[in-house]
Specification:
65% of the residues lie in helices and 6% in strands. The chain is α/β, with parallel strands linked by helices. It has a five-stranded mixed sheet with strand order 1-3-2-4-5, with helices on both faces.
């Protein structure tokens, strides 16, 4: 068995294709990690949480607002602290994209004409006019005199907007009964109440926790994903090279002669798995050398942890491509198969773009891909969560068990055929 391992490694190190993937893909991964780039990541929550300003009332809200939310075009004639607070609270809801223009110098008749025109020219879900005496109307409990709503679409979220706005004004009224008409004190008290409510402990029964990353950590995670994409390609094709040696040994009757010795079929394939293990070690070492040559490199996690992640990911894909190539029994078919696996799995795992705003079905499908779990572990390591190590170990063992089990069944079926 040791002789088989040594022979396989010697043959691989003489293979130009193997050496190419062994040396080039780690170098490309290190190059990606060394780039100082600012990745533009779409953050829907940030966009929804602010009031979007329009230059003037002629600008269309549909060009500025978030298309996935209900766009509310606001004609702000009040421009007061209270109106600012109300609009910010409605924007923070998440379902409404608040787009505001200043109409403090216009009369109510002029605003009505503009709203009538925007009802046809703009594609907002609703138009809201905050009148100049908005503060006075709210404090005197005469809301209907302080603003005007224009329903210009059939979006069912309009009713929800009206309900949310009414509830917000009710809360303002309740606080006003306590502190009086001092608007700054009133808003400060409402903010304190909301902050105290948010500080309550929340028990997540679903067991799902969002990982909050800083802008720098988001950039680091994105570059780690690109590095995973390059290094995974190398692991897959190096595994195919091992599978190619198995195919050649079967075609040249080397496998038959090996079976005439005391070595069992199981030990033979175990020796090939050990070769795949050494491939993962070699590529990880090459990557470590490449990274050590880069001055001032910061991937957000310790270098040992990052190399451990790479090694375990490589062990999974080297084993997968090895067994896939042996089962297919043809080098060309193996190349097509592993390239398809590489491109599709990387896409579904979110290595190229985040999957936060995709459908639930796509998110569920992404967790079948090994890279998705390793990206999740990288995020945990970025925030210093040590539970990432146990997760990496469990995920690696689980994938190896599945791959080896399915591969063993496939080899038996092929032998019977």
């Amino acid at each position: 068995m040791i002789s088989l391992i040594k022979m396989s490694l010697k043959l691989l190190l003489r293979n130009k294709g193997f050496l190419f993937f062994l040396l080039v893909t780690p170098a490309l991964s290190a190059f990606i990690l060394s780039l100082k780039m600012e990745h533009t990541v779409y953050n829907a929550e940030t966009e929804k949480a602010v009031v979007l300003e329009l230059e003037d009332n002629t600008k269309k809200a549909v060009y500025v607002g978030n298309a996935s939310a209900c766009i509310i075009k606001v004609y702000d004639g009040s421009k007061s602290e209270l109106s600012e607070y109300v609009l910010n609270q409605m924007a923070a809801n998440g379902m409404f994209s608040i787009c505001r223009c200043d109409v403090s110098d216009l009369t109510e008749e002029e605003v009505a004409e503009i709203a009538e025109k925007d009802a046809f020219d703009d594609r907002a879900g609703m138009l809201l006019y905050l009148k100049k005496d908005f503060d006075e109307a709210v404090l005197n409990n005469k809301w209907e005199q302080g603003f005007q709503l224009y329903v210009v679409s059939e979006d069912e979220r309009q009713e929800l907007f009206q309900t949310e706005l009414t509830d917000l004004l009710e809360r303002i009224k309740q606080v006003q009964m306590i502190v009086g008409n001092d608007i700054p004190v009133m808003l400060e008290m409402i903010t304190d109440i909301q902050d105290n409510m948010l500080k309550k402990e929340v028990v997540n029964l679903a067991g799902k926790e969002e990982i909050a990353l800083t802008e720098q950590q988001v950039n680091q995670r994105t570059q780690i994903g690109y590095a995973f994409a390059f290094i995974t390609l190398g692991f897959l094709f190096c595994g195919v090279c091992v599978a190619h040696s198995v195919i050649e040994e079967q075609n040249n009757k080397v496998f038959t002669r090996v079976m005439l010795t005391k070595l069992s079929r199981r030990d033979y394939f175990l020796s090939k798995f050990v070769v795949a293990f050494f491939i993962s070690v070699l590529q990880t070492l090459v990557l470590a050398v490449c990274l050590s040559l880069i001055q001032g490199l910061d991937v957000g996690i310790s270098m040992i942890s990052f190399l451990l992640v790479i090694f375990l990911l490589g062990l999974i894909f080297s084993t997968l491509s090895l067994l896939l190539g042996v089962i297919l029994g043809d080098v060309m078919s193996s190349n097509y198969a592993v390239f398809s696996i590489w491109s599709i799995s990387g896409l579904l795992a979110g290595l190229y773009f985040p999957l936060d705003d995709t459908t639930k079905a796509l998110k569920t499908l992404s967790y079948l891909m090994p890279q998705r779990w390793f990206m999740k572990a990288s995020e945990l390591l970025l925030i210093g969560d040590k539970s990432a190590y146990s997760m990496l170990l469990c995920v690696t063992v689980a994938y190896l068990i599945v791959i080896i089990s399915v591969g063993g069944v496939g080899l038996k079926i092929k032998r019977y055929e």
